[in-house]
Every structure is written in C-alpha cells, then in structure tokens.
Specification:
The complex is a heterodimer of chains A (about 110) and B (about 110). Chain A is built from no helices and eleven strands. With about 110 residues, chain A is mostly beta strands. Classes of the chains: A mainly beta (about 110), B mainly beta (about 110). Chains A and B meet through strand 4, strand 5 and strand 10 of A and strand 5, strand 9 and strand 10 of B.
C-alpha cells in the first residue's frame, strides 16, 4: 500500500517551459487535492477534485491546469512556468471526513 | 479575518513540559478539525482529528475543541526533542480542508 505517490521529487524548469506533476493514490479516495507551500507559509489550495471527471479551482489556480480521468490519478500541469511558481507542491487524497494523506512533495524551481 | 489563524511562533518549550498550541477559525459551519505535524522538508502528517466539543486524547496528544468560541487547541504532554516541528491547524469547509500557516514548536533539551 503506497498511499499517495508524487513524481518527480525535484525539478528545475526554465521560464516559459511546461511540465506535469504526477500524483497517484491507491486508497480508492474520491477526493484529491493539489497544494503549494512557499517557505514559511501555509498550504495554499491550487485545484481539487471530488471524483473522476470533476475538478474545481482552489485559492491560487492561475498558471495551472488539472484533469481527473481516473480515481487514482490527478496530474497538475504547469504551462509557461514563471519564477512565482517556484514552490513545494503537495498532492493529497481524502475520504473527506478523516483528514488528508499527503504525498512526499515535489520541489520545483523556475529559473 | 483569515479562515484559520495560528500564532506563527516559534514556541519554545523545555523538554518534559506541556506544549500548548492554539488555533481559531472563522466558519461556524465547520464540522471537522485536524492537527498536522510537519518536519522541515517533509510533507504534513495527520496526528489528531476532532469532530465534537470537548477533549480527545491519543497518547501524549490531546486535542480540544470549543465550537462556541471557534477555538481548537493541541496539548503535547512530556514534550520530546522529536516533537520539534511545525504544527498546522486545519478545518474543513465544503469539500476542502483549509490550513493555518502553522506554529513552529521548538523543544529545548
């Protein structure tokens, strides 16, 4: 039972490049989330999904896109990377009432 | 008013003492409340959840909830150096969980 798996763990992007952060969970959770965490700051919600085929914006969605074609996978797409997107990205899944299980995070630097 | 507010700290507590972490929230409709621990460079880890008024104990941890005052707290008894971390208070809202910015706790050996 792997829980929530995120790849890659680290990535350096050049300004204007694109990439996809992968997130997979094996707990059959309907709810999945993407957060970013800047140094010394809390977690800010980017996008979330309450089930396959359903996604919604969070607090800071600009510059990102998501899709949810299966229960297990919830990839986050960055288009035209900007330095402001330098952050640590966490994926999480939930059975709603009992808190989240987080992945190990992706540390992204845009230069 | 921010949805979930915590004192950022750092909160310094001697080893063996009780650490008290506090959190207030703004949405009276919230029903689920969580405490996460986050070590530097690691992902948050759920340590306590509480859903009804009163106290909930799990080992050295006690979560306290007062919905009338919109207040959640976490007590850590017999604090250990390994408890040094950032503690995130989180509250559910609709289909999401909203996090506070966290309180840095430092246990002094």
């Amino acid at each position: 039972n792997a829980g929530v798996t995120q790849t890659p763990k680290f990535r350096i992007l050049k300004i204007g490049q694109s990439m996809t952060l992968q997130c997979t969970q094996d707990m059959n959770h309907n709810y999945m989330y993407w957060y970013r965490q800047d140094p010394g700051m809390g977690l800010k919600l980017i996008y979330y999904s309450v089930g396959a085929g359903i996604t919604d914006k969070g607090e800071v969605p600009n510059g990102y896109n998501v899709s949810r074609s299966t229960t297990e996978d919830f990839p986050l797409r960055l288009e035209l990377a900007a330095p402001s997107q330098t952050s640590v990205y966490f994926c999480a899944s939930s059975n709603r009432e009992y808190g989240y299980t987080f992945g190990s995070g992706t540390r992204l630097t845009v230069v | 008013q921010k949805e979930v507010e915590q004192n950022s700290g750092p909160l310094s507590v001697p080893e063996g003492a009780i650490a008290s972490l506090n959190c207030t929230y703004s949405d009276r409709g919230s029903q689920s409340f969580f405490w996460y621990r986050q070590y530097s460079g690691k992902s948050p880890e759920l340590i306590m959840s509480i859903y009804s008024n009163g106290d909930k104990e799990d080992g050295r941890f006690t979560a306290q909830l007062n919905k009338a005052s919109q207040y959640v707290s976490l007590l850590i008894r017999d604090s250990q150096p390994s408890d040094s971390a950032t503690y995130l208070c989180a509250v559910n809202r609709d289909d999401k969980i909203i996090f506070g910015k966290g309180t840095r706790l430092h246990i002094l050996p």
